[in-house]
């Protein structure tokens, strides 16, 4: 039965008494503000009940009253989507007792949405019912606290979506009590009271994780937050703030196939971030801002050369990407800066590689010229930089004086300049 958008404002007792075979009842998009006790008596075969979005054309008209046993006798209910709860103003926070409104929580319950709108909520489970199948739980509100955290109802949760500043059990994030969860989505509001998110690393069955609007720079144990998540396949970080992203975050994410980064503010992305992501097939970057640092220069060549990973970059694109200096003023083209980093590394490496090349080639030339009786024409072969002048004037002179008639020296001089004084 679909009764959505009918301006229904109240469900009275025994209103559906004659619909014993009804399986779906959609009361969404109405203006319901009151559910009387025994409102759904008679709906013994009802499986899906939709009460969400009960605002209609009116604002500030959420559900105000839910009487005891309003959902009693719904023994076959599998889906319950409650609208925003806005109990009387003198009840702060809103308190919802599941066992009270159900009587007995249905064993077939598999989907439940509970929302307190913009108000804090205290959710009391009050029952140790063991469900017959996995539970998808969606909680919305400002601050949500849960009682009876050790209830078997929470151990049945496999999908958990949180749209609140935080959802806690006691003084801890709810994550500690939903150990079977496979998919976790947490949309917060940049609060300082969010709690320690390192508890996420105890959710070893996670396959999908989304964190949004979270100030991760203030998390004390952010480095270990994703440890132990060896089954995680999709990681989404949306509008979160990091100082940097590196391999300490991803060391256990060997099963990760998709990574989505929509980061807030600028960040340093170190090359070892992808070192352990051996299964990754898709990388999505949006709104990426990089600091003026060669630590980030690897990203350009990695995106171009890596054929195993599909990389999508939006707003800006790779060509439009800029890097920001720490003073927040100078903006530089990232591609040009990355090329400078590459040139700089080759330039300094050349100072050391070239002398070693000439030393080795000199030895080989002399070896090839040698014969059986006399392999080398010289007793000493020296290659030195200008910094070794004191050695040449001291030790080598003493050697020549000791055997002046037969001691021969081949000298190859390479001057390694101090370029910092020239540039």
TrEMBL record:
This is Uncharacterized protein. GO terms for cellular component: plasma membrane. The lineage of its organism: Eukaryota, Metazoa, Chordata, Craniata, Vertebrata. It comes from the Eukaryota. Keywords: Membrane, Signal, Transmembrane, Transmembrane helix. It is found in: Membrane. GO terms for molecular function: signaling receptor activity. The keyword Transcription regulation does not apply. It holds the Pfam family LRR_8. Its main location: membrane. PANTHER family: LOW QUALITY PROTEIN: TOLL-LIKE RECEPTOR 13-RELATED, TOLL-LIKE RECEPTOR. SUPFAM superfamilies: L domain-like (SSF52058). GO terms for biological process: inflammatory response; toll-like receptor signaling pathway. It is a single-pass membrane protein.
């Amino acid at each position: 039965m679909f009764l959505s958008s009918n301006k229904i404002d109240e469900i009275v007792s025994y209103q559906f008494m004659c619909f014993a075979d009804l399986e779906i009842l959609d009361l969404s998009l109405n203006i319901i503000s009151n559910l009387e006790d025994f409102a759904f008596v008679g709906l013994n075969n009802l499986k899906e009940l939709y009460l969400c979005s009960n605002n209609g054309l009116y604002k500030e008209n959420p559900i105000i009253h839910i009487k005891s046993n309003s959902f009693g006798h719904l023994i076959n209910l599998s889906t319950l989507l409650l609208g925003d709860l806005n109990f009387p103003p003198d009840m702060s926070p809103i308190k919802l007792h599941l066992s009270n409104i159900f009587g007995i929580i249905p064993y077939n319950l598999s989907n439940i949405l509970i929302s307190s709108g913009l108000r804090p909520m205290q959710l009391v489970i009050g029952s140790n019912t063991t469900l017959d199948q996995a539970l998808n739980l969606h909680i919305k509100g400002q601050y949500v606290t849960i009682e009876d955290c050790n209830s078997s109802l929470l151990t049945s949760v496999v999908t958990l979506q949180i749209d609140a500043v935080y959802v806690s059990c006691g003084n801890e994030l709810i994550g500690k009590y939903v150990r079977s969860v496979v998919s976790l989505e947490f949309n917060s509001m940049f609060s300082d009271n969010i709690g320690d998110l390192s508890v996420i690393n105890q959710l070893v069955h996670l396959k999908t994780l989304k964190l949004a609007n979270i100030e991760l720079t203030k998390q004390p144990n952010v480095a270990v937050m994703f440890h132990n998540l060896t089954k995680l396949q999709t990681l989404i970080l949306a509008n979160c703030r990091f100082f940097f992203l590196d391999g300490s975050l991803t060391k256990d994410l060997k099963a990760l196939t998709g990574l989505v980064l929509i980061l807030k503010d600028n960040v340093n992305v170190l090359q070892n971030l992808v070192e352990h992501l051996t299964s990754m097939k898709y990388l999505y970057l949006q709104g990426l801002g990089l600091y003026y640092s060669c630590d980030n220069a690897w990203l350009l060549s990695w995106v171009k050369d890596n054929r195993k990973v599909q990389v999508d970059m939006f707003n800006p694109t790779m060509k439009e990407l800029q890097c920001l200096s720490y003073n927040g003023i100078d903006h530089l083209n990232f591609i040009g800066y990355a090329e400078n980093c590459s040139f700089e590394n080759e330039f300094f490496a050349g100072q050391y590689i070239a002398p070693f090349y000439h030393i080795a080639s000199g030895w080989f030339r002399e070896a090839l010229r040698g014969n059986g009786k006399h392999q080398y024409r010289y007793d000493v072969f020296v290659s030195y930089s200008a910094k070794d002048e004191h050695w040449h004037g001291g030790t080598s002179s003493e050697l020549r004086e000791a055997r002046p008639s037969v001691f021969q020296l081949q000298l190859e001089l390479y001057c390694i300049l101090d370029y910092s004084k020239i540039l």
